[in-house]
Amino acid sequence: MSLQELGWILLLDQTAWDFSGCIPDESLPGKLLHAFTGYMAAPTILQLVRYVLYIAMMLHLLWKGTRTLAS
Q1: Whole-angstrom Cα distance, residue 65 to residue 37?
Q2: This prediction's pTM
Q3: What are the beta bridge partners of residue 15?
């Protein structure tokens, strides 16, 4: 249960998009995507921002690590 679901964080709680018509969370593809990538059919804007920041941070650390090894 996230703080946003509890209503404690109300910042950016609008739905970014809704793919529940294409790949519902409860379907087998939805469950597999959720297990491997954290897929949500209707993520909020805050969840999207958090996901993008996480990927950017991991790519930065990967790039920094490969630069250190190359030196």
Answers
A1: 23
A2: 0.69
A3: 44
